[in-house]
Amino acid sequence: MSCAYFNAGVCRSCTRIEQPYADQLAAKQARCATALAEFSRIEWRPPVASAERAFRNKAKMVVTGSAHAPVLGILDGTDGVGGVDLTGCPLYPPAIGQAFAPIKDFIVAARLSPYDIRRRRGELKHVLLTASDQDGHLMLRFVLRSTACLPAIRAELPRLLAALPNLTVVSANIQPIHQAIIEGPEEIPLTEEQTLTMVLNDIPLRVRPRSFFQTNSVVAARLYATARDWIAEMAPSGLWDLFCGVGGFALHAAEVIDGPVAGIEVSAEAIASAEASARQLGYAQVDFRALDADEFVRGRTDVPPLVVVNPPRRGLGPELCDFLADSSAQGLIYSSCNPDSLARDLRRLSGFVPERAQMFDIFPHTDHCEVLVLLVRQAD
């Protein structure tokens, strides 16, 4: 795929964009297979491809320029002050791309000064925009250094909502620290609605401002559907979904098993979203809890036959791996965004044998991907 920004040398985020997409897929598949080569029983399913463009459901834009002429994009890499406008990035769908101009107009009207990294002054650091693939509804977050400009934002917000009728969720995130951290701990709602609904495989997943959600809804839907099919095949009497986020795996599992399903996630906001989805679907057998996964499993003996895990890039860690290895669980489904930490964890999950794996290209034009692995308890 051709990209004017890449060709001009101003953005190199998509490191593999010059490589034909079929070759990208093959390279990622080979990378994953090499990382897990020691597990010889793995049957590799064909990789799940993505669209090459307009697949991202979110944009994370650094704000530079001035209050009179804001720039949304990335830093230009020179003095830490200048920026590159990326509002025409081909990875964004129309709902996102068409929102940038009204957002720039809003910044000008509200006189929001972009944060100057070198001088450590200014207020607006980032604009974070998320779009629902189904209806084009938008969630907009302003990342601010302080609350000083909130009155101006509130005063001009009605005009922005009129200019963007599909904008349903707006909030301000306060990030006062001068560090390369995108968001801070305080989120201030600016609209009554604070939930954006993403529908994947007819399952409504509610995303709140601080909730994690995959950046590629179409491929994420294939990931969840595949896990659901594998769960149905194993027909467990119960299931845990550890690191459940807004409940994607747990809610898909509830479609195909009759027993109890527990979803565990450290973020209380994500759990609140997951609970709302479960209520809408009438899934009374699904129990979501805001807990750290290690804390949840510690000392438990009531482990269900099947456990789904979807940890961050660092992996499960020794304590959780050892717990699962010593548990009564008969199967594991592991969703990983890091083949290296995945391989390390699989080595530690003694008693389980990886039997099946599939790569999902959630991040085209980069070296990143998601891998789903099915493990079964080895017979004594």
Automatic annotation (TrEMBL):
Q: What EC number(s) is this enzyme filed under?
A: 2.1.1.189
| Root EC class | transferase
Q: Which Pfam families match?
A: tRNA_U5-meth_tr
Name the residues annotated as catalytic in the UniProt entry: C337, C337 (nucleophile)
Record flagged with keyword Chloroplast? no
Source domain of life is Bacteria
Q: Which GO terms describe its biological process?
A: rRNA base methylation
For S-adenosyl-L-methionine, which residues are the binding ones? Q214, F243, E265, N310
Q: By its UniProt entry, which Gene3D superfamilies does this protein fall under?
A: 2.40.50.1070, Vaccinia Virus protein VP39 (3.40.50.150)
Instruction: Give UniProt keywords alphabetically.
Output: 4Fe-4S, Iron, Iron-sulfur, Metal-binding, Methyltransferase, rRNA processing, S-adenosyl-L-methionine, Transferase
A GO molecular function annotation here is: metal ion binding
Indicate whether Zinc appears among the record's keywords. Answer: no
Matching entries from PANTHER family are given as: RNA M5U METHYLTRANSFERASE (PTHR11061), TRNA (URACIL(54)-C(5))-METHYLTRANSFERASE (PTHR11061:SF30)
Under the heading NCBIfam families, the entry gives: meth_trns_rumB (TIGR02085)
Family (UniProt): Belongs to the class I-like SAM-binding methyltransferase superfamily. RNA M5U methyltransferase family.
Q: What is this protein called?
A: 23S rRNA (uracil(747)-C(5))-methyltransferase RlmC
